[in-house]
């Protein structure tokens, strides 16, 4: 089975800190995604990547950046954490041909609290 | 643009009741359709899928049929259990360039 592993289940950070959320997948997927999930707002795409060193902005990229130096790893960076970035963060991956029934595989999520 | 709409609001029902969660979509072509489930404190898991019209996806007692004429992919289960309490997301591919579009999700609470 494909596994997408997020490094932390729970994180508490202070306002202004630089925060790194790590995501690793073990099935050689080309595509990787970062979402945040908030009550009443569903899933919102922050950034995604179709290949190593490639990145594209999603719907809410402000305040975030990403890094994909290796195919299996996709990092989300909060440059200066703020309380409005308190949320559940979900990483996902998919093969290049997502629509041929494969869909996405998600990690277990990281619940980040910024105080 | 392409989008997915799920019925508003949480769903609360008793154990062994029949569950329906509505999902309709807007798409220019012939999308693939998915249902994902998120159990408390977890990420999303693929529940079932359908890649062409009239396909029926099924898993764990859940079913959904891809209806092109009504642009729908409603999720059903004949007899729910407390363990089915979760958030359910409908999704469509493609959205933009090789992405999934997700509905807002529906919280399902099953009471013993």
Give a quick rundown of the structure.
The complex is a heterodimer of chains A (115) and B (112). Chain A contains no helices and twelve strands.
- Strand fraction band of chain A? over 45%
The Rg value of chain A, from CA coordinates, equals 13 Å
Annotation, overall tally of beta strands of chain B: 12
Number of strands of chain A: 12
Q: How many helical elements of chain A?
A: 0
How would you name the oligomeric state of the polypeptide chains in this document?
heterodimer
The share of residues in helices of chain A is under 10%
Low-pLDDT regions of chain B: none
Largest sheet of chain B: 6 strands, mixed
- Strand content bin of chain B: over 45%
Shape of chain B: globular
Structural category of chain B is: mainly beta
The greatest inter-chain interface is formed by: A-B, 26 and 24 residues
Q: Can you walk through the features of this model?
A:
The complex is a heterodimer of chains A (115) and B (112). Chain A is mainly β and 115 residues long. Helices cover 0% and strands 51% of the residues of chain A. In chain A, strands 2, 5, 6, 7, 10, 11 and 12 form a seven-stranded mixed β-sheet that branches. Chain A has a three-stranded antiparallel β-sheet with strand order 3-9-8, with no helix packed on it. Chain B is mainly beta and 112 residues long. Chains A and B meet through strand 6 and strand 11 of A and strand 5, strand 6, strand 10 and strand 11 of B.
């Amino acid at each position: 089975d494909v596994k997408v592993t997020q490094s932390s289940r729970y994180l508490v950070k202070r306002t202004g800190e630089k925060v790194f959320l790590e995501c690793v997948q073990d099935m050689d997927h080309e595509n990787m995604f970062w979402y945040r999930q908030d009550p009443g707002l569903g899933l919102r795409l922050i950034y995604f990547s179709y290949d190593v060193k490639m990145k594209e902005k999603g719907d809410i990229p402000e305040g975030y950046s990403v890094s994909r130096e290796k195919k299996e790893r996709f990092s989300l960076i909060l440059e200066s954490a703020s309380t409005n970035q308190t949320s559940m963060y979900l990483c996902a991956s998919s093969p290049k041909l997502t629509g041929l029934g494969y869909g996405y595989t998600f990690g277990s999520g990281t619940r980040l609290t910024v105080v | 643009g392409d989008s997915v709409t799920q019925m508003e609001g949480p769903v609360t029902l008793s154990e062994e009741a029949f569950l329906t969660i509505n999902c309709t979509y807007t798409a220019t072509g012939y999308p693939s359709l998915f249902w994902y489930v998120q159990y408390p404190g977890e990420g999303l898991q693929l529940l079932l899928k359908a890649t062409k019209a009239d396909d029926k996806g099924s898993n764990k007692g859940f079913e959904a049929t891809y209806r092109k004429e009504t642009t729908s992919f409603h999720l059903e289960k004949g007899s729910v259990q407390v363990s089915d309490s979760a958030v359910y997301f409908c999704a469509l591919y493609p959205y933009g360039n090789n992405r999934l579009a997700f509905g807002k999700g529906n919280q399902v609470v099953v009471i013993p």
